[in-house]
Amino acid sequence: MSEVKSLRVKLFADGADLAGMKEMAANPLIKGFTTNPTLMRKAGIADYKAFALEVLQAIPDRPVSFEVFADEFGEMEAQALEIAGWGKNVNVKIPVMNTRGEFSGALIERLSRAGVHLNVTAVMTVEQVRRVTERLAAGTPAIISVFAGRIADTGRDPLPLMADAVRVMKAKPRSELIWASPRELLNIFQADSIGCHIITATNDILKKLSLVGKDLDKYSLETVEMFYKDAAAAGYFVATRAAA
Description:
The chain has helices at residues 2-5, 18-25, 37-42, 48-58, 73-84, 105-113, 126-135, 148-153, 158-169, 186-193, 203-206, 216-234, and strands at residues 10-14, 30-34, 64-67, 90-95, 118-123, 142-146, 175-179, 198-201. By secondary structure, the protein is an alpha/beta fold.
């Protein structure tokens, strides 16, 4: 765990299960939280605001991102201002575009200039990072979430893209890059290696932090023991001449 404590990248927990969020909030290594409407729907959240206020009451000391869910920019703006008022530690997630593919730049600029702490989400190209960065107010903290895991799902290596994004965002020193949708714990160390500011991961991935630095011979033995115990518990049997 000493390797984990030496990481410069900040660890955020990604999810919408209140019990799981509270569990992660008890871990001092977790520096913030992200959510999205898809995760909320999977968790069975019916009342968006009530859930958000409950989360903010449980986690008042670290940033939490909540997303707008409108598709028209005017309605997005109204929702963003409402969500921003729920707590001082709220980052409002704005998609980089709407469902018609229209860039959210003008809205990002208005909200950032108004002092709203944004998390611009669903970003997947360096050009998108550049366009968003240009729209951010220099004095307002902001986050840009690049979905490195989804980029990797297309067969592309996200590491060079993320490194480029870090360089582009230096134009706005109060902005931070999130490595979003990681697929494995290794991504945390990859994000750290390029100076990415934040990585947000599900609880399943974050719970693997205890494995960092584990002796591989010991891990190999534990894996063999697991297979053996599960086969015995299932009662699997293969007839052999020796058994006969």
